[in-house]
Amino acid sequence: MIRKSFALAATALLACTLPEVAHARTQMRAVGSSTVYPFAKAVAERVARANPRLGTPIIESTGTGAGIKLFCAGVGERFPDVVNASRRMKASEAKLCAGNGVSKVTEVQVGLDGVVVAAARNNPLSNLSQRDIYLAIAKTPFGKPNRAKTWKDVNGRLPAIPIRVMGPPTTSGTRDALGELLMTPACEANPQLAAMKKTDEARFKAICTGVRSDGAYIDAGENDNLIVQKLAQNPNSVGIFGYSFMEENLGKVKGIAINGVQPSYQSISSFKYPGARPLYVYVKNAHAAAIPMVRAFVAEFTKESSFGSRGYLLSLGMVAAPNPVRARAQQAARTLAPLILAALK
């Protein structure tokens, strides 16, 4: 009887946020990152088995940017309760949230991942610098049109195979991380570009993170498994996606070292790998009060047992964050303390 009364109260709470909706949902809905998707799906299935009365969460792979846009669109049963993200929320997105009444949001860092440059196992590329990657895929490297056709054009020590890079779209957090972690460091090493960052940030970003549109960089969509399949079919191509997908497909693809560092659990957890990045889950607190599964979902995502020697998230390729970060994540999952949106960059 208590469970039934709570469920009715939860439905009523969400329904009140949207007067035109007669019956609100009680099933949790999460959108967002394709990188976080397999982890979120596994967490959702685990929680649903343990709490069958709460229903199985709906997990959608929309890309981080598109997911946050949906999440921040409003409060009520039409809008997602949770967004999974392969990068931190931006200040502009926080402003969108606040403008639509999504004023209380909890940030939970659920683990680490790496932006991996991978290829078929017989691909001749074995090591690239951040500069190599920038010169190969930037639309206007250092402000000039990109005329490089082969990797040898980028660096005389690299093989003369065509530059063909399959990577994430603009809606993806992995695309943002590619620009921030693997392209920008090489770009801003140029003194003129470093100065431009202070005087014209928009132009700096366009030069440092804009990718080619002449066929050398191919927008491969949000399905990272599809990129893996295409690499096997095109041995001279290169793909960019999350470490977990590489880990799952080591029989088909290999990771290419960046600055001499191979992508691995150890190099990502220590942040020695240049593409290492945190993964996040954002909770809409107004919905957490109405849908019990939300709290259960984030609690499961931060459990120590999920990351132990036999932890199922580790087996899927997620890298555990350092102990202090995990402790903060567990506290955030328990208390749902709101993020200070104004503090985001």
TrEMBL record:
UniProt cross-references to InterPro entries, sorted A to Z: PBP_domain (IPR024370), Phosphate_ABC_transporter (IPR050811)
Superkingdom field: Bacteria
Domain PBP: residue ranges: 22-303
Record's keyword annotation contains Transmembrane helix: no
Gene3D superfamilies linked: Periplasmic binding protein-like II (3.40.190.10)
Name of the molecule in the record: Phosphate ABC transporter, periplasmic phosphate-binding protein PstS
Signal sequence, renumbered to the chain: 1-24
Keyword annotations from UniProtKB, A to Z: Signal
